[in-house]
Fold each of these.
Amino acid sequence: MTVNTPPMGWNTWNTFGENISEDLIIETCDAMIEKGLRDAGYTYVVIDDCWSCRERDSEGRLRADPEKFPHGIKYLADYVHSKGMKLGIYSCCGPKTCMGYPGSLDHEFIDARFFAESEVDYLKYDWCYHPRIIEGRVFYNRMKMALNASGRDIVFSVCNWGQDGLFDWIRGVGGDLYRSTGDISDNFTSIREIFRSQIDNLPLSGPNCFNDLDMLVCGMNNKGNVSAGGCSFEEYKTHFALWCMAQSPLMIGCDVRNIDDQTLALLKNPELIAIDQDPAVRPVVFRQWPWMNMHSYAKHLANGEYAFALVNFNDEDPQTVSYCFAEIGLPLTGEWGFKLRDCDTGEEFEKIFEDKVSATLQPHSARVFRGRPVRIR
C-alpha cells in the first residue's frame, strides 16, 4: 500500500471505547457522508479494540462478537465500500489486546488472512502485553510480513507509543503510520504535551511513514471514553491546526452523528486540510521564542506557498507571537515580502508582510496563515 499523504477518517475509541456495534459503524459511515466529511477527505471508518469474541474459534481464528457485530466484519466492509469509504480494524502485538481481547502474537499470518478475507483496508496494531524480552521491531515486522502475504493491500498503522527505539526501525519494518505518543485525553494539557514531545521528531515523518500524534478530540466536549475535563472551542481549533501543520493522520474521535456545526466546520476547513494533505510532506521549520510557551512554525508547501502557524501555549495572559521571515531565509533588504491569507477565515490580506507575520493570541490559541513570497520593489 502506498500512503502518500496522512490517512484521514474516524475511530471508535475516543468516544465509545468498548461500547461499539454494527449499528454504530453503519450510522457513523452514513453521518460522515451526510455531513460532507467523506468529501472533505475523511474516508476511513476504524473499529478499535473490543470488536472480537473473548476467545478464538476452534481453528484459532478471530471472530467478531456476535452481539456487537451479528453480520460479521465482511458485512461492514461491504457496506462501507458501497458508500465510497474504507474499513479499519484493530489488533495488538501481544497475546491480548489492551482491553484483554485476543491479540495477534503467534497468530499474525492467520489474523492477516482473516483481515484480508474480510476486505479490511487498515489495521491499527497496538503495543500491550507483548513479551519484553523480544524487540518491538520483531513484532511489527512479523505482522507486516503477514499483511503482505495476505494478498490484500492493508494500511499498517503501528501503535507502540514511541517506545523501544521506534524511530530507528519504523520505516524499515513497513509501518505506514506510527503512533509516537501515549494516549491523548480530552484536555489542552494533553494536546500541548503530545505536540511538544514530537517537535524534534517531525522531520522523520514522510510519505508511507507518517508520525501519528493520536486521534483528534475536537468536539468531544468532555463526553466519552477519553474525557478529562474537555476543551474550549478555541483550544480545539489550536489542536486541529497543530495536527495539520505536523501532517499527522487525522482520525476524528467525537460522535459525528451528533457533531455540532462549529466543530464540523473546523474539521472540514479546506485550508488546514490542504496543509495536512500537502504532497510535498515537508516538516515544519520551528522557531521558539525566549518564553518557552510561545511557538511559531513555517512550512514549505508543494505549490511554492508557505504556511505559518503562531501559537500561545501559555495558560494565562495574551501574547504577541511572530514568525520572522529571516528564519525561513527571506532576505531582509526590503525587496521581498509575503502575501498572506488567514487559514481560519479565508481572508486575503491586502498588505504585504515585509519582515514578519504577527498576531496577539489569547492563551491556548493559534493562527495559521498561508501565502507566497512576492517582490515588493
Amino acid sequence: MKRLKGKNIVIGITGGIAAYKSADLTRRLMEAGASVRIVMTHAATGFVTPLTFQALSGQPVAFDNNEADADNGMQHIELARWADAIVVTPASANTIARLAHGRADNLLTALCLASEAVKCFAPAMNRVMWDDLSTQANCRTLTDKHWQQFGPASGLQACGETGEGRMMEVGDIMQALAQCFDSGELQGLNLVVTAGPTYEAIDPVRFIGNRSSGRMGYAIAEAAQHAGASVTLVSGPTHLTAPDGVQLTAVESAEEMRQAVFTQLGDCQIYISTAAVADYRVENIASRKIKKSADKLTLTLVRNDDILSLVAAHPKRPFVVGFAAETENVVDNAREKLLGKKLDMIAANDVSDSAAEHGDGQTIGFNSEYNALHVLSTADGTRVEQQYFAIARKSQLAKQLISLIAAQYKMKNQNEKNTA
C-alpha cells in the first residue's frame, strides 16, 4: 500500500449497518501511512459513534451541526482542499442520489461538490434497493462524473437476504483506492524534476540561499511517478523525504545541479524545473571561516549558468517545463520567460506578501502545503494558452499539472509527426 503513504483521505460515512466496517478502513489507512479525516452524516451517527472514529483517526469527527462546524463555516472548503481522496463508504442509496444530482444539503455532499480530489464511493444496501433502476442510474451518473465505484459485493446481507449490495471488503477497498492514484498518463517515459533551493558557499560555514522548501517539486515527482513515469529527482537541500520509487540525486550548488541534470538529459523525455536555482554565486569562496572584524563585508557575485535555458537549447531537448516565483506582474513575467527561453510550458505563482494570506486564512507559496498556479503553454512558440489552477494542496496541483503536461507532450509529439 505504498501508494497511500502520505495521502490525505477523507472517509465519508453514511447511514447503514456497514458503517462499522469504516472503522477498520480508518485503522488500516492509518497503518498504511495515510492521514484520515472523518465526515459523518446525521444518519451515520445512529449506527456508530463519532468517538470511535476520533480515537482511530486522532482527529475530531466532522458532521452537521457539531461544534467544529459552528466554529468554522468554511469547513467543507477546508476539507475539500486538504483531501487527496474522498471515499464515501458505506454509500447509502440516499447519499448516492444526492451526490448524483449535485446536492449540497449536508457537510458531506457540500464537501464532495467543492473538491477536486479523487472521489470514490462504496455502495451498501439491500439487494432490491441496489437493483432499482433509479439507484443504477444514479451510480452511472456518478461514474460519468469521474467518481470511482467500489463494488458492491455479493453475499449475505444484514436483512437476512442474499445477493448483490454488500459493501466491498475493506482490503479490496484499500487496493482499489491505491490504484486510483495511478493514472498511467506518462507510462514508459523518463522525467527529470529539479526541486528545492541551491546553496552558494561564502566560506565553509556560510552560504547564500533562498526560501524554497522543495514541496512543489517533490509533489510533482511523486505525481509523475504515479502516472507511470521513471523519475529522477535532482534536489537541493531540503528536509523532505524522496517519494518511494523516485531516484534521488542530492546536490547543493547550482553548478552541482547543472551537472546532475545534464548527466540524466540523454534519456529524458520531459524536464520539469521547479528548483529555485541561485542566479549568482560568490566569485571567490573563502577557504576558512570569515571572521567578524570590519564593519562592512563586500562579496563579488558572478552569474550562474541558466540551467533551464541550457536544457531548452539542447540539440536533443526534452519537453521543457519551467517554474516562476514572482512578486509582481506574475502572468506577464511568466509569459516573457516562456517565450524568451523557448519553453513548452511554465507554471507561475505569486510569492508576494499580499498573496501569501487569502481571505479564508490559508497561506500559500514558500513553506506552505498550499499553492495556486498560473500555467502558460505554447504549441507553436508564439501563441500562448493560459490556465489557472486555484488554491489547493501542492499534491493536488501536482496531479493537475502532470495531467496537463502529459496531454501537451502527446499533442506536441503528434504535431511533430504530422509535419515530419
Amino acid sequence: MIAARVKPLVRRAVQARDRRARRLPPLRTGPQDGPPTVYYLTPDYDVPAGGIRGEYRHVDLLNAAGRDAAVLHHRSGFSCSWFAHGTRVTAAPDVVLGPQDVLVVPEIYGPDLQRLPRGPRLVAFNQNAYLTFAALAPGEDVSYAAFAVAMTVSQDSADYLRFAFPELEVAVVHNAIDPDLFRPAPVPAGRRIAVMPRRRPEDADQVLRLLGRRLDGWEVVRIAGESEREVADALRSCSMFLAFGHQEGFGLPPAEAMASGCYVIGFPAFGGREIFDPAWSRPIADGDVLAMARAVAETVAAFERDPEPVRRAAALGTEHVRARFGPQRQRDELLAVFAGLS
C-alpha cells in the first residue's frame, strides 16, 4: 500500500522537475541592432545530450557558410564542456532580438511555446517529435502556428509533425556523424559489447540477466556520462552495441556505434529505422527483451565460431552511415532551410 502511494508522488515530482527544465528564459525584443542573426535557444545542460550537440553543430555550419548564428543559452557565461567546440555562444540576458533575427526553438519548450516573443522570425527545431506533447498540464496544448518552418532529423519525426500540424511546413535536416571521430579501430575489436542504458535501464538489465553465463568471456562496456571523444573511443573498442532507444527522433547512439564498426542489435525506436537494416544489424521489435537476448546470444555464438561474418556485416553498417549521414548532406539541407527564410 505504501509503495502504491509513493509511486504517484515520485511521478508527479519528476513531472514537475521536467516542466521546470522546459521553461523559457526571459527573451527581450526591440529594434534591429546589427546584422540579422540566427539564435538557437538551448537549455543550460552540461551533460552528454545529442540534441544539444546538434544545435551547436548547426550554428557552426551556418557561421561557416557566412550566416551569423549563435547558441543562445539561458545564463551568461554558460557553454557546454563535454565536447570540444569553438561555437559562438551567447545568452538570453545579453541579447535583444530584432525583427530580422531568427529564433530557433527546440521541442523541449513545448509547454511554453505560447510565450515566445513575436518580434523575431521563429523556426522550430524538433529533433524528437515524440517529445512534442511532453510535460503538458491537463487541458494544455501545443501550437506551432507562429513558426515559419519546423526542422526535424528523420522522416519518421517529419511524418509525426505533419500529421499533428497539417498546416506546418516541415523540413528534414539529417544528423551528421563525424567520420573523423566515429570510425572503426585499425585492429578489429574483440569480445566487448557496448551498452548505453540511459533510456531503458530496466530493459538493459533484463537482457543482460537473461544472457547470464552466455556472456562468459565477454566484457560489457557501459557508456554513461562520458565526453563525446570518450564515447567514440569506447565504441571503437567494441564489436557489438546493444540499442535500447525508446521513441527516438533518430537514434544517434546506434548510428555512432555503426560508424565505429559495431554490429548493432536492438530497438530501432521508430526514428532509427533509417539506419537499421537486417543486412548489417539485428532490429528487434520494440520492448521485446526476450527476442533481443536471443539475438545477442546467437550473435555471440556466431562471433565465437568465426568473427569475420559479423565483422563484415558491421562494415556494411559503417558504409551506410558514412554514405547517408555525412556532414555535407546535413550542411546542404540546413542551408536550404535558411535560404527559404531570406
